[in-house]
Amino acid sequence: MDCNARSLLFILPLLLLLSRFPSAFPIIYPPNEVNLLDSKASQGELGWISYPSHGWEEISGVDEHYTPIRTFQVCNVMEYSQNNWLRTNWIARQSAQKVYVELKFTLRDCNSIPLVLGTCKETFNLLYQETDENQGGHFREHLFSKIDTIAADESFTQTDLGDRILKLNTEVREVGPLTKKGFYLAFQDVGACVALVSVRVYFKKCPNTVRNLASFPDTVPMDSQSLVEVKGSCVNHSKEEEPPRMYCSTEGEWLVPIGKCLCNPGYEERSNTCQMCRAGFYKSAVGNAECPKCPPHSFSHHEGSLHCGCEKNYFRAEDDPPSMACTRPPSPPRNVISSINETSVILDWSWPEDAGGRKDITFTVVCKRCRVVGADGSSNGGALRCEPCRNNVRFLPRAAGLQNTTVMVCDLLAHTNYTFEIEAQNGVSVMAPKMRQYAAVTITTNQAAPSPVTVIRKERTSRNSVSLSWQEPERPNGIILDYEIKYYEKEEQETSYTILRARGCNVTLNGLKSNTAYLLQIRARTAAGYGASSPSFQFETSPDSAFSISSENSQVVLIAISSAVAIILLTVLLYVLIGRICCRSKSKHPDEKRLHFGNGHLRLPGIRTYVDPHTYEDPSQAVHEFAKELDASCIAIDKVVGAGEFGEVCSGRLRLPSKKEICVAIKTLKGGYTDKQRRDFLAEASIMGQFDHPNIIRLEGVVTRSKPVMIVTEYMENGSLDSFLRKNDAQFTGIQLVGMLRGIASGMKYLSDMGYVHRDLAARNILVNSNLVCKVSDFGLSRVLEDDPEAAYTTRGGKIPIRWTAPEAIAYRKFTSASDAWSYGIVLWEVMSYGERPYWEMSNQDVIKAVDEGYRLPPPMDCPATLYQLMLDCWQKERNNRPKFEQIVSILDKLIRNPGSLKITANTTSRPANLLLERSSSEVPMGDWMDGMRTLPCKEAFSGVSYSSCDTLAKTSTEDLKKVGVTIVGPPKKIVSSLKSVDTKNDPVPV
Ligand code: ACK
Prior knowledge:
Blueprint: H1 3-20, E1 33-38, E2 49-51, E3 57-62, E4 68-75, E5 84-87, E6 91-92, E7 99-107, E8 123-131, E9 145-151, E10 157-158, E11 164-165, E12 169-175, E13 182-189, E14 193-204, E15 209-211, E16 214-216, E17 228-231, E18 233-234, E19 238-248, E20 254-263, E21 267-270, E22 273-276, E23 298-299, E24 309-310, E25 334-341, E26 344-350, E27 362-373, E28 383-388, E29 394-396, E30 406-410, E31 417-425, E32 438-444, E33 456-461, E34 466-470, E35 482-489, E36 497-502, E37 506-509, E38 517-526, E39 529-530, E40 537-540, H2 546-550, H3 552-579, E41 595-598, E42 601-602, H4 619-626, E43 635-643, E44 648-654, E45 662-668, H5 675-688, E46 699-703, E47 710-714, H6 721-727, H7 734-753, E48 766-768, E49 774-776, H8 782-787, E50 792-793, E51 799-800, H9 807-812, H10 817-832, H11 844-852, H12 865-874, H13 885-897, E52 917-918, H14 928-934, H15 950-953, H16 958-963, E53 967-968, H17 972-985
Antiparallel strand pairs: 1-14, 2-5, 3-4, 4-14, 5-13, 6-13, 7-12, 7-14, 8-9, 8-13, 10-11, 15-16, 16-18, 17-19, 19-20, 21-22, 23-24, 25-26, 26-30, 27-28, 27-31, 29-30, 31-32, 33-34, 34-37, 35-36, 35-38, 36-41, 38-39, 38-40, 41-42, 43-44, 44-45, 45-47, 46-47, 48-49, 50-51, 52-53
Helix pairs in contact: 4-5, 7-10, 7-13, 10-12
The structure holds 2',3'- cyclic AMP.
């Protein structure tokens, strides 16, 4: 067979082959394979050596893309002893230790070739030779080593149509380990019909890669089975967390990644790289998390931000994480409520409306003591000057860092104005001093009793006396008026005791039994009353001398005789005294008024009994008994402030020798007075001089030995209460008004305890000083009423201030402390209506009738229900049902302690509310308005079956109200007509 015949025999199927395997093109080799030789890549002659020359034949062809390719074929199947060699060019090994040879070929099935003589083969051999250099055309068969015999997996197959389909065989063989710089491959044909379509020689590597943000370079595996350990290096903007490593397998695969790198702050991982955070995002720490968005109230304008800056007026505390929103100081606390209890106050407040976005809120309370100071430094008018409170003011639990919304402030000064600034703070407050706000509350402390005397010393002891001294209480809470010293024999255990009073801090106890143990307690008294008693202090008197002990019996006899004489004398004396209706006891020493108690029962109340100056035959004696005679030269009159019944009332100054000058009011007796007028004028001083109480006007003294005759009292800067209230309409807080009322009630309690009935208690007879302290004034007897312009003559003679007076006092002159309580109710009404005239323009006649029929004044505008209830109680027809002044004081104290209770008001009408309360619904028809009133929140406050307590008042129902016959009627016209119709039905009231 000639050469052409051979070609025909073989090429046609080859072209067919190429067109039948389009999927083989274009060829993309795996990334871990590095070609050392690819016959397809060469489009020109390959230049391989073929030996003998009629053996392997190089043929050009095209692939399916018509790209020319070079192939080799041999098909000397008709001839014997074939040994045809085809040798590649020298192939540089590069770094490979092991190479792969991929052969693509076709091989004809000998059976498919007609006329073969049994020489036909179906395999060929693959061989190689290693050399360090290219040996050119030099070729020696025996230097080649056999790699393998290559047989076809597939061969020609006959189809039904008679076409021949050529199957392409692919065989891969490993060669290695290679040690020399290069090598040759050789294909030995021994009589097959084979076409070598392509030869590719490659080695495997682990291609460079990035894993866990570490980059690993191209790595050629070892020839052996062992893995190559490769260290990675962190990509840009990242840092090693744990050294990155990986293993490269012989198959060119990366295995077992260990360790990793993390993106630096400001960078995030994107596609195996660390990229800058975008604007509006940030990353503050190393890590592969995404850059988070800037938290609320913060921003980042640039890429790669580590933190987001805070918006204006927003801050980040030092410990705040960057992921936290920016925050701001909280708004001030709200609804600050103060509850004052003597010299302590509990402050309560609500959580601030805006916590500033934080949860770490605490509260700080700053205490300031504030005074209105005039330009001259006096306390008259001017600016409010505040100074920090003294250090000994205690805060419970503490002043700063409070986590609850309440604090108790103790040990304040009594009767003093304080301002408390309460600030809510959070973690960023310190960063924004200008944004910090506080809520302030101003309070005035109440009177408070002094703290107990704690230090008592024994100065001298004798058989019958002991001298003691003590230290002023730590917290006097006011000016100490005197000390009460109570002592008794230790053995008698308080069944009988003696009480002494001393102005100073020392006392000598006389008349003690010798050689006897005594127990003693001291308590201080201020305007606010007595403080707690000191702990019991024990002392012993000295023993009798030897002589007196031996003559004990005779001494007993002596004592018995002298006691009998003394008792007789005392009886005579008492008889004389009772005969003169004089029931006062005089102490020998002005500073020490001694009261005796026996068998534990008080013979005289702790407060002296009032002595009616008219029981003195000579009233001027009474004046000098109770009032100090002043030298007129000590008094400087400044100006006239008003007119009294007997003469002008002036303001002035009193300077007593070795005492500080004080402001005083001076009542003068105008010239040309009668003896009776003089007596009546001075009677007031005789009465006033017996009183010593912070809510009773204090008498400084009288001038009787020169003219004009004067009564000098303490000066009350704000004059009388009624005009003061009218001048300051609606200017005071509920607590201030209740404070004034408490003062009046306390003064009245003192008077009633002393057995004094005032008879003319009205706002015009109360004086007010610059501290809003109210004091009862205008004392007298019948004169009181004579001199009162409000007093009207009754049918029984005498003048009575009808609108202020209890019905029984009007009707049959039954003046008692209970009738004073009625008047107190009217004063209460006057105060709460800021000086309104009780019963407005109604005539006295009408007032008497209306009151008698059960009508009562309506609540003043905005009057707290509890206070209105107190008024109604004071206006109980049955006088025994009216509250005692002691109870009134305690009710008002409770209100002061619970200012919240003042918020429930008794009505919503505007002043003047010309409405009266009706006693019985059956007597006077009720209007529709009544129904409306019933729904008022205060309705339950209108009780008053009998006097109970402040707490129970608010619980009384309208049914209870009806039981006592109190209902409400209105409007004004209806009342007038109702009153008129009642008028015509009833007998005239004796006025
Ligand atoms: O309202 P007033 O200014 O206060 O007018 C009357 C006036 O004298 C006639 O009583 C005033 N007055 C009375 N006693 C005193 C006092 N102790 N201090 C100041 N003013 C007084 C009262």
